[in-house]
Write a structure and sequence with these properties.
single chain, 330 residues, alpha/beta, six-stranded parallel sheet, three-stranded antiparallel sheet, 12 helices, globular
């Protein structure tokens, strides 16, 4: 790797060579990811890593590597997703002189974990971290931003976590059944089979967090419901974790109807992307109206994401940025 700035060297020593192998990753792929993200060079000699680069980048690389090593010491794995998270998050520096107990406490303080039946979910950006905190703290929360930023995925993860811990008795996930710019025509089958194509992203998220047999049983018992937004009319949702996905495709009347379903002991999360409205021309988006009307209401949180928070393939962020730039020009 060629560096344009003067090189200085920071040396990190890791006592457990077995954990250091896991820290470096297969064929040093984790170190390569840190080098690419922070424009540093990392040289491994035995149980020592030397970081070459400017002072600020060295500090960030050092903090990230120490945090990942502590993760391994606590018995957890380190995979490319964890490395990516450390590159994105604002991590306070952990020096080698810090006592091990203090290090673990600092790591816990920086991290937020969402426990589900199948996996542990952790925010990968500062915006995601703030969003998850607001989901636990507020009875009504909005997550607004482009595709691929984890708005729905994290909301469903928090819902499953709260259900497992007994904070809510059921999970209700819904979406407006609006076609994304194309006419699908008549769909055969039962009512559930007709709406399933619209609900598939919600099924995908649930399958990540709950074993298949348990999920099927909970759906059969109506403890977990996945339904079009229109099915919410006339209901009062008590002790439920309720997610409205793709809220930009709800009309103003639908949004008001949905928000007023909130019952005792329930939580509501509304996610959407203002740039992907599929409503007919001239129909106002209920998400925009809710944002305008509820922004100053206490105990309702609004969290915003940008292309920097995209956690899908890196090209997704590039595509979003290109479209945003074109919109500004036009």
């Amino acid at each position: 790797m060629t560096l344009d700035h003067p090189l200085t060297e920071v040396v990190l020593e890791f006592p457990d060579n077995r954990l250091l192998i896991d820290l470096c990753g297969p064929y040093d792929s984790h170190l390569t990811a840190v080098e690419k993200a922070l424009e540093v060079q990392i040289v491994r000699r035995g149980n020592v890593l030397s970081i070459l680069g400017d002072e600020a980048s060295q500090s960030r690389a050092s903090s990230a590597l120490h945090a990942l090593y502590l993760r391994l010491e606590s018995g957890k794995e380190v995979n490319p997703t964890d490395v990516d998270r450390e590159m994105r998050m604002g991590i306070s520096e952990i020096t080698p002189e810090t006592r091990a107990g203090d290090q673990l406490e600092m790591l816990r303080g920086n991290g937020i974990e969402i426990k589900t039946r199948k996996k542990l979910v952790e925010p990968r950006t500062d915006a995601q971290k703030s969003y998850v905190q607001s989901l636990f703290q507020n009875e009504m929360a909005f997550g607004i931003g482009p595709a691929g930023t984890g708005k729905t995925y994290l909301a469903v993860a928090v819902g499953v976590s709260m259900f497992i811990s007994g904070q809510v008795d059921r999970i209700i996930l819904c979406r407006p059944a609006v076609e994304a710019g194309e006419r699908l025509g008549f769909l055969p089958g039962t009512q559930e089979e007709k709406v399933d194509p619209y609900m598939q992203p919600l099924y995908d998220a649930l399958n990540d967090f709950l074993p298949g047999k348990q999920l099927a049983k909970l759906k059969e018992e109506k403890t977990i419901e996945i339904a079009p937004l229109a099915f919410m009319r006339g209901r009062t949702l008590s002790r439920a974790f309720v997610v409205l996905d793709e809220a930009q495709n709800a009309t103003s009347m639908q949004m008001k109807m949905f928000l007023t379903r909130l019952g005792e002991g329930s939580r509501m999360v509304i996610t959407g992307d203002r740039t992907q409205v599929d409503l007919p021309r001239g129909v106002a988006s209920g998400l925009a109206d809710a944002e305008r009307l509820l922004k100053s209401v206490p105990k309702i949180s609004f969290n915003y994401f940008t292309s920097k928070d995209v956690v899908r393939h890196p090209l997704v962020a590039a595509v979003i940025e290109a479209y945003e730039a074109d919109t500004k020009i036009s």
